[in-house]
Amino acid sequence: MRLMRRIIRLYQSFIISGVIILFCLVAFFIGILPGFKKITGMIKIVYEQTKTVQILEEKINILNALDEELLSSYATAAISAVPADKSLGTIFSTIDGLTSQEGVAVSGISLSSIGSVATEAAKKLSTEEQKIGVNIIPFSIIVTGPIEQVRNVVDKAVKIRRLFRIRNFDLSFDNKSGTTKSTIQMDAYYVPLPTSMGKISDSLKPLSDDEIQIIDKISALPLVTKSAPIGTESAQVQTEPQSLDPFSP
To answer: How far apart, in whole angstroms, are the C-alpha atoms of residue 1 and residue 7?
Structure first.
């Protein structure tokens, strides 16, 4: 007991200092450190909210600066060129209007893949579709008429509002009748609307000059959808149709 008191008396200053240091360490880990983490988290939340408010203000300014009628015309032009769904009717009516304008007969039209009429859930994007960022509908048409008109169809098919791409085509000539028969393999495009909304924090940018120029070019393309029956002679498809124009009533 005397030894213990002697030790305490001898090392009293060190013991008091140790107790104070221990108390400070306990206070730091129990009180100060959690409080610091909480304050840091609050600062981070305030910063994120401030940034979100700034983004929303920028979005509001951009939206207020937009011309609704002009924006509506842009959307109409874009959708008429590349619809939000397969829109097979616009493909048929455009081909009908184009061939009617040029005075050639359509003796056959077919979709080149089962995926063209499959649902979005059943259809997987091909490598090419993933690369260019749009869905492709391959199809082919068979047209018959004078060589000049058939050539005009091939030339104008890529210069109309409903965007098409010609993969390849072939020609055959009938010397007796003087007509030309051509099988044209083409692609049409569509882009489904997004299924989810973007985040509030996502930035909203106005249309760039390049994008506006592209839309203006699309708007300047003729919208060919007039349907007019042409030709009354029969032609060979898979069966013998009653009319060269499958779109005529």
So the answer is: 10
DSSP classification of residue 94: H
DSSP-derived pairing of the beta strands 179-190 and 135-145 = antiparallel
CA distance 38 to 135: 49
This prediction's pTM: 0.62
Kindly report the average pLDDT of the chain as a whole number. Answer: 78
Do the beta carbons of residue 162 and residue 79 sit within 8 Å? no
Q: Can you tell me whether residue 141 is helix, strand or coil?
A: strand
Q: What are the backbone angles phi and psi of residue 149, rounded to the nearest 5°?
A: -70, -40
Residue 131 CA to residue 69 CA, distance in Å, equals 33
Count the neighbouring beta carbons within 10 Å of the beta carbon of residue 235. Answer: 19
- Beta-carbon count within 10 A of 160 CB: 19
Taking alpha carbons only, the member of 92, 189, 90 closest to residue 136 is 189
What span, in angstroms and rounded, lies between the C-alpha atoms of 113 and 213?
34
Alpha carbons 140 and 149: distance in angstroms, whole number: 18
| CA distance readout (Å), 108 to 19, 111, 160, 236 | 97, 11, 21, 8
- Token couple for 249: 């009533």
* Separation between Cα atoms, residue 234 and residue 9, nearest integer Å: 122
* CA-wise closest residue to 169 among 145, 158, 185, 156: 185
User: Tell me: the pLDDT tens digits for 68-121?
Assistant: 888 888 888 888 899 988 888 889 899 999 999 888 998 888 886 655 455 554
